Structures are given as C-alpha cells and as structure tokens.
Give the backbone structure.
Amino acid sequence: MERGGYRGRAGGGGDRRQGQVGPIARGGGRGGHGSGGVRGRGWRGPTGSRGPTSPTAVTLHSQRSSSLPVSEPVIPAMQSLTLSENLPENLAKLLPLKRPDSGGTYTIQNLRLHANFFAVEYSPTRMIWQYDFDIKPKLPPEHGQPVMKLPKSILSIIRNNLSSNHPKEFPLTMTAHDGRKNIFSAIPLQPGEFKVVLSEEDDRKAHSYICTLNLVSELSYCKLSEYLSGSVLPIPRDILQGLDVVMKENPTRQMICAGRRFFTTKLDRRDDLGHGIIASRGFRHSLKPTSQCLALCLDHSVLAFRKPIPVIKFLEEHIDGFNTNNFDAFREKVDNALKRLKVALTHRVTKMKFTIAGLTEKNTRYLSFVVQDSEGIASPRDVSLVDYYREKYSKDIEYKDIPCLELGKNGRKNQVPMEFCILAEGQRYPKEDLDRNAAKNLKDMSLVPPKVRQNMICNMVRDRDGPCGGEIAHNFGIRVSMNMTRVTGRVLRPPEIKVSTSSGEVMRITVDKQKCNWNFIKRSVVEGKSVGRWAVLDFSSSSGRFSLNPDQFIPAFMDRCRSLRIHLGEPLVYKPTTMNKLSNVDTIRELLDWINEWTYKNSEGRLQILVCVMAREDEGYKYLKWYSETILGMMTQCCLSPSANKVNDQYLLNLALKINAKLGGSNFELMSGLPHFGGEGHAMFIGADVNHPGPLNTTSPSMAAVVASMNWPAVNHYAARIHPQDHRKEKIVKFADMCLELLKAYVQLNKVKPGRVVIFRDGVSESQFDMLLNEELVDLKRAFRAMNYSPTITLIVAQKRHQTRLFPEGERDGGSTGNVPPGTVVDTGITHHSDFDFYLCSHYGSIGTSKPTHYQVLWDDHEFTSNGLQQLIYDLCFTYARCTKSVSLVPPVYYADLVAYRGQHYHQAVIAGQSAASAASSSSSLVSSFNEQLYRLHPDLENSMFFV
C-alpha cells in the first residue's frame, strides 16, 4: 500500500563520440581551448552566439584535483564553465541548449501518427496593440479603508458596459482581456479615462468606476515569424502572451473557467456522479512554437463540479437522508458541505455572487434585525426576517424552521434564507472527496480510448464555444487548421534484462515486444538480501472479513521471497492490533517504540523491516512513516489485508521486490549496461522535484526532494534527501547542498567520485528554465568547484504536465489498445524549432490514452546526440525497482516525485503530532514555519530506498 502508485513511460539510444574537444558550435566550427571553447553545450552569449563574446566572459579551468580519484569520462576532459563574480549579468546568462542534429534515426519501426497540434496561420504584417487596463471605484472607500480587489466577474461586467457605452472606441469583438490588467486589441484604441456606471440592483446603490486605458506596446507578428524561422533568438513572449489571451477570449466568455481549463455549461444527465455532483467535459489549450509553425495544442479534460441547483435541493442530493424537518441532526454536515461555496440569489435582481460564511445560530422564524428609516424621519424598528421578506420582496419564506445562510461580502454578513439561494456554476468538487463509485465514473470519463479522445479533441477545436469559435480569433487575423498535425514516430529497441536463475546464475531476458514487460516465473532477483530480523504489525486484526489471515499470508510470502533468492526467515514477532490504534498518533508511537525495544532485547541486531498490515487506507499512515523514518530509523513496508489475503503471486512478488530494494538488494539490471556511458568511469544520475501543498493551503511549506544513484554500472540503487522550503517556491533553495550530501554518500559507498553527472529536473515550466540554468545549475557548479571537483554535467527537464497526445494513424501504427507502442519517440514536427527536446512514450498504455513525457536538454557536457540520449533515457525506464515493466517517467524523476510526496506526509504528520501533544496550546507557528530537523531522515535510512 505504499503511496505514489505506478505511472508508466520511457526514452532512449546510445552513441559514443570520442576525440572531440570543445562543444559543437551550431552554425559554426568547434570552439577550441584557446578560442573561447567552453565545455557545456548550453552557454551562449547575449546575442545567441555559442561561447563568450569577450575573453572576460568566462574563466576556464583545465586542472582537476581531488583527494579521491575521479572516474574519467569517455570523451576527453574539457574545461568547466566558471562564472566570474564581477561579471555583468547579461554576459553570464546561460540559455537552453540548441538541438545537436536533425533528430534521431534509431528505430525498429516507423509510425504514422497524429498529434493534437493544429497549425495556426497569421499574416506577418498584422499588429496587436497592448494596453494597460486599470479600474478603480470613482469614490474612495469610506473611513480610509484600502481599495478592494475587484473580482473577475465584476471586471467582466465593467468591460462589457464600457463596450456597450462606447462601441466605436472600445469594440468588444476586437479586444481580448486577460482578466487582470492587460487588454490586447486588433485595432488601435483611444487611450484615456472612461466612466462606467453599474446600474442599481434592487436595494443596492449604483456604483461608478473610472477605467483608464494606456498604450503599453505595439506588437508585430513579424517578430514571431522571424523567431520561428530561426533568424531571431529570444522568444517573443509578449506576442505569444497576446495571442494566447486572444485564443482564450471566446471560451472565457462562453464557458466555465477552472484555472487554465474551460468546461461546458451544457450539462448532460449521463455525466451525473450523484450526491449533487456532475462531471463536466472541457479542454485546456496553449500555443506552441514548433519546428513547422505556430500551433494550437488542445487536450480533452474532465472535472467534477457541484451542480448549479438550489441549495436545499443540493443538500437533499448531497447528504444521505437529509430532511428539512430534522435539520438539527444534519447541521454539522450541512455546514461542512456549504461553507465557502458561492451562491446566486433568486429573490432580487443581481449578478453578484456571495460566499457562504456559515449558518445562523437561530432558525429563520426567530431572526430579526433593526431597520433604519431611509429618510431619517421614523425611529429605527426591529423587524423579523420573515416579515421583512414579505414586505420588501413579496416573498413568503417556506422553510422557517431551518437556519439561514450567512453570506459574506466585503466584510459584511447578510442573512438569507436557503430557499432563495442557488449554487453558482463552475464550483469544483475535490476528486479525493468523491465516493468510490463517483471516483470510478470520473476516472472512466477521463481515461477514454485514443480514438474517442481524438474525436473529442477535434470536436472541441471546431466548437463555436472553443478557442477558434466566434469572431475574436478571426478579427485578430488568426486562422487555425481543423486537422491534427501528422508526424512520424520511431519505436526504439528495448534493452535486455538481467536476472538470475534459481541457482544464482546470470539469466538474460528479452522483454515482451508489445507490452515491454517481463516476469519472474522460475527466475530470481540479481541480488537478494537475507532478512533474518523482521516483524509483522497487523492493524487489521479486528476488522472482520478484512482481517489478515496470518497463517496463510506469512508462509506464502516467505515462500515467494525464497523462490526469488531473498532469504526471508520466520518473523521475530507478530503483533495484532486494531485500525483505531493506527488512527491515534500516541498509540502509533507506543507500538513502534515497543517493537523497536523488543527487537533490541530479543535479537542480535535491530529490525530490518517491519511489515504493517492495514484493513484500509488511513491517515495514520503518514504519522507511521514519519516516526519510523525520521525518529526510529526503522524500515517499514505497508500493505492492505484484502490484497494480502488473496496471496496472489504477482502481489507477493511486488511486495518482495519493494522490500528487497529497500534493503539494498538488486532486483534486475540492464544486461548490457547504459548506452553512451561505456568504459570504466562512474556516472551518477540525479533526480529533483518539488511537491507543493494543495491550492487551498496557504501556509504549509513546499517539499524539495533530490535523489541520486548510488551504484555503477547497474544504476538501480538510489539515496534521497528531503528539504522543506517556502510555500510554493519552485526553486530548490538548497539544491547544491542536497547534491553534495548525496555525492559524499556516493564516495563513501564507491570510494570514487563520479566523473559524469546527469541531472533530471521535474515540475518546471519553460518560463522557469532560466532559473534552472542560472540559479540551480550555477549554484551546483560553484559548490563542486569549491571542493576542487569538476564533473561533466548534463541537465534535462522531464515534463508530464503538458497537453501533447499522440494518436496512431492506422491499426499497424498502434498496439492492441489503440495507443502508440512503448518506446515511441517523436522529435520532429511538434518539437521546438531549435531547442533540444523530444517526446518519449516509454510505457505500455493499457487504459485511456498514453501521455508521452517531454524531455528538454538545457545543458550538456557529454555531447549527446538525439540517438544517444533517447536510447539512454528509454533504457533507464526499465530500471524502476517496483515493477517488471518500463515506466512512463525516467526513474530518477519518478523517485524524486515519490520522495517529495513523502515529504508532504511528513509535514502533515508533524502537524498532527504537535496537535496531539499540545491540543490546548496554539501550534500556528509550526504551521506557518518549519523546523528542518523534523523532516530529516534518520541516519540509518539516509542511503536507502525507503521511499519505494
């Protein structure tokens, strides 16, 4: 039951280049040592030329010195890049690496594919005018209060009124608004101030606003054309931003916006998820500069929303058994279901939405308030809410014996009967809160087969409410092809896998060509660990039919481990307990302490592994992991009793593989080692990721994780470091420090420093590449240089959060599920026109539509070719320790993702532990800040794969 399940995919091919000195200068010759040649094919001067523009731009170091040997790379040693401390920033700028060739050639099969990219045509002679659009109330707030930020809904109303009042000066169909401060126009607008008055709405006064329009810049499409042709280096982000706003304008007006995605307002009963929740289908899109043209990339999406229905009807659907006649029995559930939701009102004319702050303490019939005479003649009088609605709105309140809703707006609270409130549309429902059936239905709607998804995408591009519908794009001179882009894919050859026979001899496995998987039938792991000291902590013992059958599970598990040559003895202790103990922080601590102490007293060493059996997933899992991994230094393996009781061979195998990897064993290896990195020199692979708290959490730290391989040439054992940092900060603040810790661990284990380092970074967008190159990478180089260590480095970004999908053109181009086969790589047509990137689908897509991983090389000292890097990454995807198949993401990143997720578990456990220890005292300081030591692994686990 270890969290962070399998995600599937791959990449790869090998190539050795020897005898080259200095990088290849794209569009020029090779840079020699004396002519500004700089190792690291990622550095360019400010004009885009390869290498420095002056002798002072870089300092070259050709000497290596270290107290420990450094393994030599296959290519000759070249000078490291060192940034001068007093160098002007523009000369020190590192830019992403250019593509080294015209693409890869390795293949066992060529594929005809369609990608969800739609060519965008425009006239290079066209212009876009960008304006700053500022809106302020005409009258300042009373009593010196700060000006409140206007919601997007009000901004949209003001903009529509401005257009209707000034149609010639401000034509709505010729402009696009980003919802904040920018307006892009297809024609020049008249700058200046405009007054907008929002009409009175019932008992609310009219509001006046001053809209100020100022020209920011004139953007020419020709710059984008020059960039796509390669004649201009810097990407014209201002033009792309403007065009992106233009393509979002029509769906913004017609559809529900949820983050960067758009969903239809047309609800279908077939998408009802029950309990007042419905699935809505939509899309996310973006503009991509490709090697062929500018393209619109659009993908299908599904989200769960609360139905826009009357509040009382929502409660009847959402809460089982809800009845207004017995409201008090459901009060707490109602409060939890409605708090912070937005509602529209039916008893008066208003377009405003109000947020539910809670329920009134009294029921409706007992509520009253003081009414002031508007003319100041009569004395204030006390009026019941029931009479007020009858007199003011001619409305008789039907549900008098239930509370009203407290609606908050601008710091004020209004008491409104529930029957006059409707849930506003477009309010997302967290998928983790869905019940089992609803979650399954939503998943089925999301994981549609490739052909179905392809048709959905094409229909969305053609839809009148979509990015290409309406007049907006047409007025800006944009034409979008209705046909997907055709590309050629190549299938890379999978590597052969090394395992052992039952007698311990080396055995070669050829993986299944279609699914790229293998099995352990009559086969054993390469290196199985002896486990003489282990125990079972059974939380399921009082869970009825979900209770573990230890007499069946334990012998079967021992037999399966032994068949794999993992020597598992009898457990030292079997401790039955209950799930209630798992849910209690104090009892978890007591149980783990007891087992730890018992082992010390009754065995010759500490416990190697504790198997924890649970009847179901539980929040106590987080505290169990934190306490065992940071305080006790105890390795744990969790599993669910319903699965364990089946004693299924595959389930027992997966459990055994996890335990063997955690204890330092080797489950399987590549038969021929990794391509490109032949020879005797060591190489270390690093993966880095940052996990951020949920969108509603505004205080918890983000968790940075760095993992690094600890063995060579098998590259299947990793160590990890976790570090908390400021909330939602993407840069890994202590990246260099974490890498140095892992380097020291590598040296301790191997007695040599790796001469080659390959870094895979996850979780960043293109706008953050500059941060990776000029902050994280520079910090790491500086730290290495301080210890007289100069390895060759390659930095690669692995992206899964993109919209690109690949669809086979015919049956022979796809597998049995209609997906592209494992090992499919695309590096032409839809890739960047000059940067070194490619898409690699390294896993077998059994359900839904496979999503490839997008890899982009930002820095490269190893002079990879497309063939060499693609095969290397693909082969690495066969080394993931938890399963016998190729996975979707290169393992260093996959592991870093698991570790960062574990870090969030640690934080939640720390908060739970603090609350349990001092329930009466405030722990807000711990929520808003963090103690790094609380997240540090126990020294006994620092160099283990505790996270698999």
User: Anything to note?
Assistant: The chain has a mean pLDDT of 87. The two ends are 11 Å apart (CA to CA). Residues 127-302 form one domain. The chain is about 25% helix and 25% strand.
